[in-house]
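JOB MANIFEST
job_type = single_chain_structure
chain_count = 1
residues = 514
[input]
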Amino acid sequence: MAGGKLTPRQKMINLMYLVFIAMLALNMSKEVLTAFGLMNEKFEGVNKFSEEYNKSLLATLEQKAEDDPTRFKAPLDKANQVQKISKELYAYLRTLKEDVSKEFPREEKTGKLPYEAMDKGGYIDEHWFKGDKYSSKGDEIISNIEKYKKDLIAVFGNDVKYQPIISNIKTKFNLDNVKDKDGVSKKYLAYHFEGFPAVASIAKLTSMQNDVESTEQDIYNALIGNTIAQAASLKNFQAMVILDKNVYFEGETVKGKVVLGKYDANTVPTSFSGPGKIENGQAIISMTAGSVGEKNITGTFSFMEDGKPVPLKFEGKYVVVPRPNSANISADKMNVVYRGLPNPMTISFAGIPDNAVTASAPGLSSAGGKGKYNLNPGSGTEVTVSVTGKMQDGKSVTDKKVFRIKNIPAPAGAIGKQIGVLKGAKSRLQVSQVTAELQDFLYDLQFQVTRFTFKVPGQPAIIVSGDRVNGQCAAALARATRGDQITISEIKTKIVGGANVITKDASPVVYEIQ
């Protein structure tokens, strides 16, 4: 049965069909057989009315085509094709009825069939079926109905305006297997005709003729331009919320619109361009999000309507934010930068692309990469880094963070890169280099010793320029004895690599003569 708002004529047909189904469950008494016959007469009367009505619709379309050929010539051509296809199946169903009824002589006076004698369906059971399969006649019947469906659908092709009609054709003339009350799957003809009284089968065939007439009527109405209830029903629409973008910041204005949209599996575009594929009348989007920032989704649907392609463009927005691949963990007391060093920093705003983020602070400079900076602080004990991000709506957000400024710690004096109290021969000390080592520091710094004080017990201290023992030191060292501790102190240094910073003196190193 067709859905939607039904006409009184269709309601009557549906009611008769329900009565027809109900009677199948009853014993085939003479009264029931007569009722089937009377039902068949009612169907034939409705079909005669429908035939005349369809002729009037076709005449209306012919007149419109004559008055306005530009708009109605193509619809009239389609209508003529539909009329030819419909007549062929209607006439074929009439021959099937004649075959079923030819063994029952009609009454001479009224010309009616002897309904009460038509309690057997021997002709159909014998000629339409062969075992649990169709006979050649059964295959012929199925083939003719399928041809009718195929030819009708081909008249309209992919034109979306007529998809509701095409869907109705597929439903009305669905020849798939049917499950009976016991759940057994039966072939279409077996379920509807095998084992039924001849008068019931004739009534069913007349009902199928009515489906042909009503389908023809729906098509003519659509071609003329009349409203089809199924296409206009709000049940086929869905309210959709369409926002300007899919990610918003706290306090940002949410903008969008609510529209009525409609999609179904029968409305298939002739072409589609965009980031996805068509499934059940919808474009299913599948793509990689890409870099951080606002992105656009664009494309075009194309449909055929009145023989012409109709493009429908679409556009949407979404915002890509950084993937949360790490937690934001910080030690509140460890926000430290070192004076005289290019302290590396990564600065960003969640949800805002790097090219829309700016940062400023005394001594801050770009390091070349995305969000990468170097901070080389000057005087003072603190430095504030201020950050501004510009959102897609033009508004700006700001943040700042304070860092403590510390000097580079003093290194430890060393002989041959060894710190603390060392022991060895005089000869070893004479050829060793005085160095300065900074252990367990965040930066890998190298120091060059520029001056130190050399002190042998009982002798004057010697100031040495450079990082090795000179002649004066060697002469004083020659007078040292076993157990004497040579002290190297007031070690002046500079950082290798040109860092412009004054370093603290390195701690002393002691060398005991062995």
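[summary]
The chain is about 35% helix and 25% strand.
Residues 227-234 have pLDDT under 50 and may be disordered.
exit_status = 0
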